[in-house]
Amino acid sequence: MGRITGPVCRLCRRDGLKLFLKGTRCDTSKCAFERRSSPPGMVQKRRGKPTEYGLHLREKQKVKHYYGVLERQFRTYFARAERGKGNTGETLMSLLERRLDNVIHRLGFATSRSAARQFVLHGHVTVNGRRVDVPSYLVRAGDVLRVKNRTKSLQLVHAALSSMRRDVPDFLSRSEGGVPEGRVDRLPTSEDVSIPVQANLIIELCSK
Q: Dihedral of CA 30/31/37/40: which sign?
């Protein structure tokens, strides 16, 4: 599966859930999912009961769309979660939540994960004082994320913070001084995910 470049609102309608892929637009009356939540397509045919495989696949696709990862990346996260200790589903969701682009978005430094990915790629953020431009970088407990003290970086972040309508999750903390920064207070758990996910369905599918 390649990177999706078409209308992302169709993904929300396909998954039957708001994935907040268009930033602040998703919180307004302009949200396409709010206006038309039916699956995409010109002709709506009667659909039968989804198969067990279809339910499992839809759950995996929903998570991939939400975090903006490709199939090969997702398989890598699954393999790492499978090798780890504890519940594989919880470990998988924790790894996805620890992605740097996701953390930047959830701190409110970018209005969407795609914007956060670009923000990281352009070198606007440092982790523990070191420049990191890899969106898939996995943060650790105690890491400090600071926006670079330069005009362009600060303008982007302050614009995002001014339109922020969601609270910072419990595993993160944010300070909004002259140079905004965030801190990873602890590793995220499955409860920190902001959309409902049945991780057990994903594990069953990927384990086959």
A: positive
d(CA 43, CA 192): 37
Beta carbons of 181 and 146 less than 8 angstroms apart? yes
Domain match, 116 and 157 both: yes
Contact (Cβ atoms closer than 8 angstroms) between residue 188 and residue 98: yes
- Give the CA distances from residue 187 to residues 10, 13, 54, 55, 88, in Å, rounded to whole numbers and listed in that order: 32, 31, 31, 29, 15
Domain count across the chain: 2
pTM of this structure: 0.82
181-197 pLDDT per residue, tens? 999 999 999 889 888 88
The answer to whether residue 146 sits within a structural domain is: yes
| 144 and 71 belong to one structural domain | no
134 is in which domain, residue-wise?
99-184
**20 φ/ψ sector (left φ>0, alpha ψ -120 to 50, else beta):** left
